[in-house]
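Section 3.1: Structural characterization of target chains.
Under the original work plan, the team committed to producing a structural model for every single-chain target entering the pipeline before any wet-lab resources were allocated. The record below documents one such target. The sequence was received from the expression subgroup and is listed exactly as submitted; it comprises 320 residues.
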Amino acid sequence: MSIVEKYAFHRAEQIYERYLTAEERARIQIPTSLADLVDKAAQFSNYRAESPRFMMFSQQAMALEALEKLIEGACEMSPKAGGLIWGSVAFILEMVKEDATRLEKVTEFFLDMAEKVGKISFHLNELPISSVLDICCALYPAIVDFWLKAVKYYKLLKSGGIRDRIGAVAQFNYLDKKYQILASAINDQRSALKRAKAEHRAAEVESDRVQSKLYQQSARHRELKDRLDAPNYKQEYDTAAELRYEGTCEWIAARKQLYIDWRTPASSESIRFLFIHGIPGAGKTVLSSWIINDIRSTQSDATTEQLVLYYYFKDTDPKK
């Protein structure tokens, strides 16, 4: 909980201690949820007909449900930070329930607040949690401060003393002005919400752009790598060598004119080709692997080292 919220909470407690009895403070500090407040309001059924707006209380009050959850999640205090608001409203309703005019006024304040805050709460799930907490931390002190003033005002009216009534009358316009301050604070947070949503959308668009660029770069990188990567030419050689039965393919070594002369040219400048052909499955690949191995063995015994290069073409593999 921020320092501003703690200050608002403790200031309310101090004002209540000054103007309310211990019993009245206890009634406000009884753990009260928004649902408890709605249930409390439902008990005033005898007064609903005299207050048309009060009939909408239960329905519109639940627009504050999202705010309540956020307050309780962000503010770890005892009694609960949100409960101070709902407890104060319930306390006022109890004081004015027999006066239709006052009940109408309190209901007007509460429902207007619920409508305005509800419009903010409806969009909070579209924002990152940091922006949500900033908005809640700004709303909470303003809401607490207004209902703190309202409790004080209606308590003065309820006390019945001439001095207190004069004080209450003097505060009547001030309470309306105080609500305008609350309404202005809520509107400020609606503007903050719009800015936060715009910034969040812009951040998401930028993030998508960066991710798309990285993906395209990665795709180009993979394509380039695939083009530059040499195919595994040794795979066919190893496979063919494993398929060869011992003693096979050695027949070609006995063909002097065909193989021996090709393998050992008369000079280093001689260029000769050995062309082996046959039907598919005749054993050309296996024979080739034996020839490669034979040439390597011959080169290992030679005084001059020569390079042996080989490659297998394969029509079933686009890379080969």
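The first helix runs from residue 3 to 19.
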